[in-house]
Amino acid sequence: MAELSASILAADLLNLEREISLAVKSGIKWVHLDVMDGHFVPNLTMGIPFGIAIRRKFNVDIESHMMVDNPDKYLDKYCSFSKIVTIHYEAPVQTIRVLREIESRGSMPGLSINPKTQVSRIEGLLPYTKYVLVMTVEPGFSGQSMIEEAADKISLLKEYRERMGMNFLIGVDGGIKKDNITRIHSLGPDIIVSASAIFSGNIEENVKSLKNCMKEDQDGQRDC
Asked: Catalytic: 173?
């Protein structure tokens, strides 16, 4: 079963410790940190202090999703607390160099693609990454509806991975809720990122419900 990763973009920032605590208590092992600079995407969000604080307080793996123009400027800090540091194919950087720098600093180099970007565009970059994050919404804001056809890239990436003999992980992020997580999970990603579906309402019940929708019983059914 895929890991469920909690994007704190939708959490109550005035009660962030409590919100993450409830998510972790419910079985969340991954926290997704959305880093936005107001240039690459039209929004500003949490940065380095949030990641440092989460790492000090919680025993979780952190993915720092760098939706910024110049991620290479901040790699030392983000790699210090992140298991995965993900940059965007669409960002104006020397992608291979930055992916190599992330790995040299001890984090898994991740590469994200926007909904309109075809997988074929990143084929030559796959040998340099350990994680590919498929965006199923346009990056920038939480609470958007999923672009369903973008999720089909998961299956295509699995084909690339098998054909090329690689072992990169596949993640998916954007608009994932109880009513579509069963389909998304059936496509076979390794990590499923969810934001508002976790942090809106009762966090513990939300996580339980999402995990039930992902978990098959012995008859191949899901309690969803």
From this structure: yes
